[in-house]
Task: structure prediction
Amino acid sequence: MEFDDENKKEKNELVEWIKSIAIAILIAILIKTFVFNTTYVVGNSMYPTLHDSDRLIAFKLPLYFTDPKPGDIVILSAPDSENKDYIKRVIAVEGDIVQISDGKIYVNGVQIEENYLTGDEYTHIYSENYWIIPEGEVFVLGDNRAEGASKDSRYFGTVKIEDIKGIAKFRYYPFDSRFGKLN
Result:
């Protein structure tokens, strides 16, 4: 009788452990799917803001309530490649007019201030230099504006908001002077 009680107690404890682990896995999946995700920077298209191998936290939750704003760093499905993501900065939103002239970016006729760039960066163009941003889309650029350094809206056009997977807000690695909130 005592052996049966001990056996039953062990089975109950095992069942509780399995339930706890299953609940923890479910919560982790829900958080990763709907709240935030981590991402890894590959390449230098966002240099000097982001460097190759930086690790970021990208929040998904804000996208359920509001669209990305100019200046936001977003993770998006690469329009020109399956199973690949890009990290870019939103420059303009629906209804805006973007023009690149003499290496400067103008949104609605006003040159934008890009304090996240170092020096007097020259923004190269591929073929077009004028875009009207359609409803439900944004215009994105990499912070590295050197010729051929970033595949972005200059290359593949505007991006549908539904293709944006998150807004990068925090760099958690490397642990150096760049650690912390992104701007």
